[in-house]
């Protein structure tokens, strides 16, 4: 399984791009993959081909609104592991709590 952190932004659309981000998040939601939106991007969990395809779809969606799109993508592959969106945060929190 792969965790993908994704941020895709159409350039030249002003200071706020939340309306465009919402379109990408809707696309991610429709994919059926587990995801978590945060202030700087969206984390998606799934098999590598599916998350990469989803990233491509998000870029292509933003390209409908702008001739230039920037994307930041970070991948974390771990064989056999799933449910890591919450588990990774819980692991760090447990250590902060002294467990």
Keyphrases for this structure?
99 residues, globular, alpha+beta, Alpha-Beta Plaits
Q: Any overview of this molecule?
A:
The chain has 99 residues and is an alpha+beta fold. It has a single domain, classed as 2-Layer Sandwich (Alpha-Beta Plaits), CATH 3.30.70.930. The protein is built from three helices and four strands, in the order βαββαβα. The protein has helices at 18-31, 48-63, 84-96; strands spanning 2-10, 34-38, 41-46, 69-77. A four-stranded antiparallel beta sheet has the order 2-3-1-4, with helices on one face. InterPro entries: MTH1187/YkoF-like (IPR029756), Thiamine_BP (IPR002767), UPF0045_domain (IPR051614). It comes from Posidoniimonas corsicana. Belongs to the UPF0045 family.
Short description:
The protein has 99 residues and is an alpha+beta fold. The protein has helices at 18-31, 48-63, 84-96, and strands spanning 2-10, 34-38, 41-46, 69-77. The protein has one domain (2-96): Alpha-Beta Plaits.
Helix content: 40-55%
How are strands sequenced across the largest beta sheet?
2-3-1-4
The total domain count is 1
- Ends distance: 26 Å
Q: How many beta-strand elements? A: 4
User: Major beta sheet, specifics?
Assistant: 4 strands, antiparallel
Q: Radius of gyration from the CA trace?
A: 15 Å
Low-confidence stretches: none
- What is the count of DSSP helices, taking H or I runs of 4+ residues? 3
Shape: globular
* Protein structure class: alpha+beta
Q: Under CATH, the topology is which? A: Alpha-Beta Plaits
Q: Any guess at the CATH architecture?
A: 2-Layer Sandwich
């Amino acid at each position: 399984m792969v965790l993908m952190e994704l941020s895709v932004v159409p350039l030249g659309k002003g200071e706020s791009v939340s309306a465009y981000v919402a379109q990408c998040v809707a696309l991610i939601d429709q994919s059926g993959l587990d995801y978590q939106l945060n202030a700087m991007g969206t984390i998606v969990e799934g098999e590598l081909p599916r998350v990469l395809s989803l990233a491509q779809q998000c870029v292509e969606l933003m390209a409908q609104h702008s001739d230039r799109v920037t994307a930041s993508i970070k991948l974390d592959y771990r064989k056999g592991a799933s449910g890591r969106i919450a588990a990774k945060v819980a692991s760090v929190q447990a250590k902060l709590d002294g467990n």
